[in-house]
Design brief:
Low-confidence stretches: none
Helix content: 55-70%
Largest sheet: none
Number of helices: 7
Mean pLDDT: 76
Strand content: under 5%
Order of helices and strands: HHHHHHH
Structural class: mainly alpha
Shape: globular
Length: 97
């Protein structure tokens, strides 16, 4: 599956629309990564949509093949399939304490 197809179907398309907004902070995040002197850790609660798209944008910017970017993006499908909405809410509540 090419990156274009992945970007126009499924959850990735909704996140791309949100990240395309100037107030999303995507540009600031990419600038911070580009100017960091050391490795950068990017994470969020579930680690898929916004985090995955930010990583995909950075990988594309440095010339990684679309097929490899998509494979990396969808690799979290198997991992996140076992996480229930209840578990995510529990984690969210813990993080907000």
């Amino acid at each position: 599956m090419g990156l274009h197809r992945a970007a126009t179907t499924g959850t990735m398309s909704a996140e791309l629309r949100r990240l395309a907004e100037p107030e999303s902070g995507l540009g600031e995040i990419v600038r911070e990564i580009a100017h960091s002197d050391s490795g950068t850790l990017i994470h969020c609660l579930a680690g898929r949509d916004r985090t995955g798209i930010i990583v995909a944008v950075v990988l594309a910017a440095v010339g990684v093949r679309d097929e490899d970017i998509v494979a990396d993006y969808v690799a979290s499908d198997a991992e996140s399939a076992g996480v229930s909405a209840g578990e995510i809410e529990h984690l969210r509540a813990k993080l907000l304490e």
